[in-house]
């Protein structure tokens, strides 16, 4: 019996069919080691490629009860070695620092998916110091090392603010050789194309940012733009949706499937509901597409062990994670 998929959108091909055509079984989760938490859609930016449709006027924000339940789940599940905080701008959630402090006290790795400019926002003057003091890994969006491309995708002035923020992080030790403070940069294509080779692009970033600003970082992660929400609307408006989906499907790479991030994480929405990934969250595609497990919210989740071996809900958008070198929250997969 075929695993249920997200509702078809503009003739998006079936991901289950793509897997079957390549002789691959349905995607199932292995051991869960990462709790990825979307603390809300509130953000100081409104980027064109944002699959969350985040922005300054969004009101979806995780409350204290859900945040506390996340802390309890971490306490009861030592196999969860990573708390991955995303948004929106996760730092704008009033419970962000509590989540960070509690997880680090337990010895868990904490990842902050940061847009950089939030470090310059009013009321966030000590944010960089807070992140450094707690050993938080910063995964920072910088979609190009050139100003025009960044400002076009993220808004005028974003590039200069991002460079200033990177300078602050470097001054605290982030991204420096031998430093325990990890600073990774994230590249997204400007439009309807696949990212270039990650290693080659990382060399370009490293050379340009050092030459022009003296900025250092640990790694560059290339991430494919997902054809959902705001970016899907851009594709539709520019009449590129069908062409982009064809690009993703035609570049399906079977070698990326074993490393899909949904195999080792579970995603928690701002309202506490559980999903197989942050993309499924935005499509409101429930955990496992409603199969087997009765676990539906963080309040139901006593042990992440019950999720191991369960099928993952898939849809046409999954072609974005498996095209070319693949794409995940940790960059390319192949």
What does this protein look like?
The chain has 334 residues and is of the alpha/beta class. It has one domain (15-320): Aldolase class I (TIM Barrel). 30% of the residues lie in helices and 11% in strands. The chain has helices at residues 15-21, 64-76, 96-105, 127-133, 147-154, 158-171, 198-213, 229-237, 241-250, 278-282, and strands spanning 34-38, 82-86, 109-114, 137-141, 183-187, 219-222, 265-268, 274-275. The protein has an 8-stranded mixed beta sheet with strand order 6-5-4-3-2-1-7-8. Strand 3 (109-114), helix 4 (127-133) and strand 4 (137-141) form a beta-alpha-beta unit. Helix 2 (64-76) runs parallel beside helix 3. It is globular, with a radius of gyration of 19 Å. The model is unreliable at 1-10 (pLDDT under 50).
Structure, briefly:
The chain is α/β, with parallel strands linked by helices.
Gap between N and C termini, in Å?
A: 30 Å
Query: If you consult CATH, what is the topology?
Result: TIM Barrel
By CATH, the architecture is named Alpha-Beta Barrel
Q: Could you describe the largest sheet, including whether it forms a barrel?
A: 8 strands, mixed
List the total number of helices: 10
Would you tell me the overall average pLDDT? 91
**What is the H-and-E element order?**
HEHEHEHEHHEHEHHEEH
User: Which CATH class is shown?
Assistant: Alpha Beta
Number of strands: 8
What class would the helix/strand composition place it in? alpha/beta
Q: Strand order across the biggest sheet?
A: 6-5-4-3-2-1-7-8
CA radius of gyration is: 19 Å
Q: Portion of residues in helices?
A: 25-40%
Unreliable stretches covering 5 or more consecutive residues? 1-10
CATH superfamily: Aldolase class I
The tally of structural domains comes to: 1
Q: Provide the β-strand percentage band.
A: 5-15%
Shape: globular
């Amino acid at each position: 019996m075929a695993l249920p998929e997200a509702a078809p959108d503009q003739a998006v091909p079936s991901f289950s069919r793509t897997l079957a055509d390549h002789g691959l079984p349905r995607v199932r989760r292995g051991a869960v080691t990462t709790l990825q938490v979307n603390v809300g859609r509130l953000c100081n930016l409104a980027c064109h490629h944002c699959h969350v449709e985040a922005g300054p006027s969004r009101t979806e924000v995780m409350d204290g009860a859900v945040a506390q339940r996340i802390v309890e789940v971490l306490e009861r599940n030592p196999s969860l070695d990573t708390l991955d905080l995303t948004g929106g701008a996760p730092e704008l959630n009033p419970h962000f620092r509590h989540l960070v402090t509690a997880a680090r006290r337990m010895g868990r790795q904490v990842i902050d998916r940061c847009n950089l400019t939030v470090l310059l926002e009013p009321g966030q003057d000590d944010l960089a110091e807070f992140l450094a003091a707690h050993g938080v890994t910063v995964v920072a969006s910088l979609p190009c090392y050139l100003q025009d491309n960044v400002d076009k995708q993220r808004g005028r002035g974003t590039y200069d603010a991002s460079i200033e923020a990177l300078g602050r992080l470097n001054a605290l030790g982030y991204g420096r050789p031998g430093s325990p403070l990890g600073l990774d940069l994230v590249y997204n294509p400007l439009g309807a194309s696949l990212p270039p080779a990650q290693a080659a692009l990382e060399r370009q970033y490293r050379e340009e940012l050092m030459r022009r600003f003296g900025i250092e970082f640990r790694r560059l992660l290339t991430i494919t733009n997902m054809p959902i929400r705001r970016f899907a609307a851009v594709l539709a408006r520019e009449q590129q949706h069908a062409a982009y989906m064809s690009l993703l499907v035609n570049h399906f790479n079977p070698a990326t499937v074993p490393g899909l991030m949904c195999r080792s994480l579970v995603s928690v929405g701002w309202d506490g509901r559980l999903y197989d990934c942050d993309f499924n969250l935005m499509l409101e595609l429930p955990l496992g597409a409603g199969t087997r497990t009765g676990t539906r919210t963080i309040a139901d989740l006593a042990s992440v062990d019950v999720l191991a071996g369960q099928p993952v809900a898939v849809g046409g958008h999954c072609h974005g994670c498996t095209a070319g070198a693949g794409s995940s929250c940790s960059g390319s997969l192949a």
